[in-house]
Write a structure and sequence with these properties.
single chain, alpha/beta, Alpha-Beta Plaits, 6-stranded mixed sheet, 4-stranded antiparallel sheet, 11 helices, about 40% helix, elongated
Length: about 375
């Protein structure tokens, strides 16, 4: 049956490449990806998928389902398609969206034999406020057997881990005064933010090596001769697991409250973006993927890396068996989140690798539908 999938893949190869290139040439930031979402949804609808756009009130999110009408398992492929500010698709989400949609269409062609359902999810804003978090919370992945996504890279590598992450905002309120004439009448909110940074820097000595804490001052006053009555800091706090993150978050909140006490300011803490869970790779699904990738000619697959970054795919992986491997789209080392990487996504080599990735997803989806133990 995989021979049939290969045949269908060859038939839609040019269309998959055209979709990826279209998204590349029309970069859109998270939750603004109207052209990309429409392009992918139209492709899926044309191939017999029931498409719902704007799901969960997220304008550029969609679900697409091909139902065989027979009992069976359910497989999900996840599309990403948000770009980065100024540098476009420097994370290769144009390729991710095209591969996942293409894999869904290819696998749907044999669903009459296997039974079950194929889902393709359009998941906006992975770079900022990932829709997969809300989708997982609202139960959109309930009943699905396995979920998959492939990320372009300069290396072909197994799915590994990602860090759990909280995006915390610390808003301090003080009291204005003339900074020269009567500073004693003021409460300096910026001093509180500076103490927050100092406290977090001191905390770095007493956390495990997987923890990352990095932030900016988003607001620090309006003029040097006015005691700032409002100052805001935004931090990403990361750790290898949700459990470690929870403990570190408590320490950071203690530091933040201490900064308020030291300066007399008041503090309001909030999440300025959604929080991401750590990625849990399913080993059995990953092994099946590796076998399929090797059958398509890619023999060298590097072991997983221990990345310190975070992604909303982690929330999916905490709900059902999930993989997030990487496929090389260039024959030399090119750093992600650069214009050079964006340009690499539309080369002939990237197109060839994209087809291999698309077929590998479809092959692995077929294994799941046929009863792969997970």
């Amino acid at each position: 049956m995989k021979d049939l999938l290969y045949k269908f893949g060859q038939e839609i190869k040019n269309e998959i490449c055209e979709i990826s290139d279209f998204i590349y040439h029309n970069p859109e930031l998270g939750n603004q990806e109207f052209k990309a979402a429409e392009k992918l949804a139209q492709f899926l609808a044309t191939n017999g998928f029931a498409v719902e756009q704007g799901v969960l009130g997220i304008a550029t999110a969609f679900t697409a389902t091909f139902d065989s009408g027979k009992p069976g398992r359910e497989v999900a492929f996840l599309c990403e398609y948000d770009a980065l500010p100024e540098i476009g698709h420097a994370c290769g989400h144009n390729i991710i969206g095209a591969m996942s949609a293409g894999a869904g269409v290819i696998l749907s062609k044999v669903l009459c034999e296997t039974g079950g359902k194929v889902h393709v999810f359009g998941t906006p804003a992975e770079e900022t406020n990932g829709a997969k978090v809300t989708m997982a919370e609202k139960g959109l992945f309930d009943g699905i057997t396995a979920a998959m996504i492939i990320h372009p890279s300069s290396e072909t590598r197994e799915s590994g881990t990602s860090s759990a992450m909280e995006a915390l905002q610390f808003a301090y309120r003080g009291l204005t005064a003339h900074a020269a004439g009567c500073p004693e009448e003021g409460i300096n909110a910026l001093n509180a933010v500076i103490q927050l940074f100092n406290g977090i820097d001191a905390l770095r000595q007493h956390v495990t090596t997987d923890v990352r804490m990095h932030g900016i001052i988003a607001k620090g006053g309006v003029a040097a001769n006015i005691v700032p009555d409002e100052a805001v800091a935004q931090f990403y706090i990361r750790a290898a697991t949700k459990e470690t993150l929870a403990a570190v978050k408590k320490q950071v909140l203690d530091v933040a409250n201490g900064a308020a006490l030291m300066t007399g300011a008041t503090l309001a803490v909030s999440n300025y973006e959604l929080s991401y869970d750590n990625l849990k790779t399913n080993a059995l699904l990953m092994a099946a993927y590796n076998n399929n990738l090797q059958s398509l000619g890619i023999k060298e697959i590097l072991p997983p890396s221990k990345g310190a970054g975070s992604s909303d795919i982690g929330n999916v992986s905490n709900a059902l068996p999930t993989i997030h491997p990487y496929i090389a789209i260039c024959d030399k080392s090119v750093i992600g989140h650069t214009r050079e990487f964006a340009e690499a996504t539309i080369t002939p080599f990237a197109h060839e690798q994209m087809l291999i990735g698309t077929l590998t997803l479809a092959y692995t989806g077929l294994d799941v539908l046929n009863g792969l133990e997970l």
